[in-house]
Amino acid sequence: MSSLHHRHLAVSPDWLALYYRHPLEITHGEGRHVWDADGKRYLDFFGGILTTMTAHALPEVTKAVSEQAARIIHSSTLYLNRPMIELAERVASLSGIPDARVFFTTSGTEANDTALLLATTYRRSNQILAMRNSYHGRSFSAVSITGNNAWSPTSLSPLQTLYVHGGVRTRGPYAHLSDEEFTAACVADLEDLLGHTRTPAALIAEPIQGVGGFTSPPDGLYGAFREVLDRHGVLWISDEVQTGWGRSGEHFWGWQAHAQNGPPDILTFAKGIGNGMSIGGVVARAEVMNCLDANSISTFGGSPVTMAAGLANLSYLLEHDLQGNARRVGGLLIERLRTIGAASERVREVRGRGLMIGVELVKPGTDEADPGAAAAVLEAAREGGLLIGKGGGHNTSVLRIAPPLSLAIPEAEEGAEILADALRAVG
C-alpha cells in the first residue's frame, strides 16, 4: 500500500470508494491520455466519470481559465456576471425549451436538487416519479429518488418516490416484448400507477442511465410518457448530467430521442460542460423557474472562472463537431466491442450510443450478473494501459466506456484491443 493511500484512509470516510486493488494517483493528462505518479501512461476511456468531455489539458479551456483567474476568480450571483450570462444565453438557446431560464450550480447533484425544488414548489406536491435503476446524485433528496440500492444509503426522504418501469430494456418483466410492445406496457404501467396515487410533481429520468450501466428504453418512450404526464399536469425532468452535450452522437440532448411531444419542462446538466471544472445547472421554462417565492442564490454556481471554462469548452465542442465525432468513432467502437463480446461467454450485451457504451458481464453459461468479473476486467485493462469505469443495477457488472469526445479512430481501436486482452485474461 502506498503512503498516499495510507494517508487517504486515515482522513477519508470508509464509504469513499477507490478503483483498483492498488489505487491510482493521476498526476497529469493530455488529449485522451493520463499519467500516474510512476510515469505510466493510460488511454482514458472514462474521462473522470464522463467529465473530461473534450480532452485533457485542452489549450482553449486552460487559457480561458488562466485569463479569467488573472482578472477575478469569484464574485457570487449577487453581482452581474458577464461569463455567466453569456453561457446561460448559449445553454438556453441550445436547450430546446421555450422561454428558457438557466440557473447554474456546482454539480449534477445540486442541479437535480434544484429541479426537485422547482417541481415540488410549482406543483405543490412532494411526490416524485423516478425510474428503476436510476441515479441522480448523492444529496439527501437526490438519494431518495435514486432507484439503485448500491447508491442509496438511506430510505429516509423528504419526498415520496414511486418507481416506474422502462429505463432498462433487456431485463425485467417486459424484456421479452418488442420495442413497440415494451413502450405500450410501460405506458400502461404508468397510467395504472397514476390511478392509485395522488398527483405527483414530476417524473425525473435519465434518457440513458449512467451509473445504472448505460441502459435505455426504446426511442420515444419518454415522449409517450409525456402524453400521460401532460394529462395529469405532471412535469418531466430530463436528467442530462451524463447524456448532454452530444455524447450519444445521434442527439445533442438525450431527450431528443423522445421528442415527439416536445421538450422536457426541466433539464438538468453538469459534468462535461466544464471539461473538469465544477459546473452544473438547470434549464426550465420561465413560469417553472420563477415559481419560488423566497430568495435563492448560489455562492459558487456561476463562478466567473468555471463559466469561462464552460464557454471555451462549449465553443470548442461545437466548432469541432465533437457530437459528429462521437457518432462516427463511437459507432465504430461499439461494433468493434460487439465483435469482441461475441467471442466471450462472459459478455451478455454491448449497448450504448456514441461514446457512451456499456459492456454487461455475466457468469459463463448463465444470465447472472458477475461483479467479480467486472472488477477483474477493470484491473486487467489498467494493467494494459486502459482506464474504464463500472456500474449497473442489482450488481455492478457493467463496464462503462466513455472517452473524451475527441477520441480518434486509432485510439478507439487501441482501447478495444486492450479490453479484448483484458476479457481474455479473466477467462
Written account of the structure:
By secondary structure, the protein is α/β, with parallel strands linked by helices. The chain contains 13 helices and 15 strands. The longest helix is centred in the C-terminal third of the chain and has 21 residues, at 322-342. It is globular, with a radius of gyration of 21 Å. 52% of the residues are buried. The mean pLDDT is 96.
Summary tags:
15 strands; seven-stranded mixed sheet; 13 helices; four-stranded mixed sheet; 16% strand; alpha/beta; 427 residues
Biggest β-sheet, characterized? 7 strands, mixed
* Number of helical regions: 13
The general outline is: globular
Give me the count of strands.
Answer: 15
What structural class should be given to the helix and strand makeup? alpha/beta
**What is the averaged pLDDT score?**
96
- Helicity level, as a percent range? 25-40%
**Beta-strand proportion:** 15-25%
Spans of at least 5 consecutive residues with low confidence = none
**H and E string:** HEEEHHHEHEHEHEHEEEHHHEEHEEEH
Question: Main sheet: which strands, in order across?
Answer: 4-10-9-8-7-5-6
Alpha-carbon distance between the two ends: 27 Å
Radius of gyration: 21 Å
